[in-house]
Design brief:
The chain is built from two helices and twelve strands. It is of the alpha+beta class. The chain has a twelve-stranded antiparallel beta barrel.
């Protein structure tokens, strides 16, 4: 991709086993767990921007039991980078040759002693400045809290109705999701929109490999 902004989305697939012989950097039994595609892509069979590989299904990613994953270029299947857990909610991103690219951290949100949103930070290993994104805008959280009693009543009624009717229904009250990763003193580098579930990306502000890595972690965390 060039330096022009573009939007992509992450499809979380049912894992597909990697055909033999698998690349030597992948573990035995590795699977393709997700794909990254342009949001304007046409047919699903078109080559994606990237493919995400993980260890076997029994070791699927979760925040409690994270596993490494590998991001391959969608056109030529070349390894772009790998992401390895370093500590709880801390992940190291390495280039194809093993050189460190960045550290990605997730800071949990909380209500007390003062409210704070979930925060994702990408700290590049080189001279580039960190990129930080907070989940949910302040005004969406304000609206969320203000309307919570009405939504709680709706969810309660919908749950009772689905129980009586016998048909399962997802009545979850979703929290604000929009996340903007910003470079201090610069514009937004990566912008996740919860309704369309797409990431708007500016390559001149953030290495594409790092954008893909944090977007995968962000998506998988919301899907778990």
């Amino acid at each position: 991709m060039d330096d022009n902004p573009y939007s992509f989305l992450i499809s979380v697939n049912n894992p597909v086993p990697v055909p033999s012989p698998a690349p030597t950097h992948l573990p035995p039994g590795a699977e393709m767990a997700s794909t990254i595609r342009l949001s304007t892509a046409g047919r699903s069979e078109d080559a994606p921007l990237a493919r995400i590989f993980t260890p076997p299904t029994t070791q699927r990613w979760s925040r409690e039991k994270p596993v490494p994953f590998w991001i391959h270029d969608g056109q030529n299947d070349r390894l772009l980078c790998s992401v390895h857990p370093a500590a709880p909610d801390v992940y190291d991103v390495h280039a194809a040759d093993g050189a460190p690219l960045a550290r990605v951290t997730r800071r949990s949100g909380r209500l007390l002693p003062w409210p704070r949103r979930v925060q994702w930070t990408v700290a590049p290993s080189g001279p580039a400045r960190p990129v930080t994104g907070r989940v949910g805008t302040w005004y969406s959280w304000l609206l969320y809290v203000a309307t919570a009693p009405a939504w709680f009543l709706y969810v309660l009624c919908a749950t009772v109705y689905s129980f009586v009717d016998g048909s399962p229904d997802d009545s979850t009250f979703k929290s604000p999701a929009r996340t903007r990763w910003r470079v201090h003193g610069a514009n937004t580098a990566l912008d996740y929109r919860g309704i369309s579930r797409t990431y708007r990306f500016k390559a001149r502000l953030l290495n594409p490999r790092l954008a893909y890595a944090v977007a995968v972690l962000h998506t998988w965390e919301r899907k778990r």
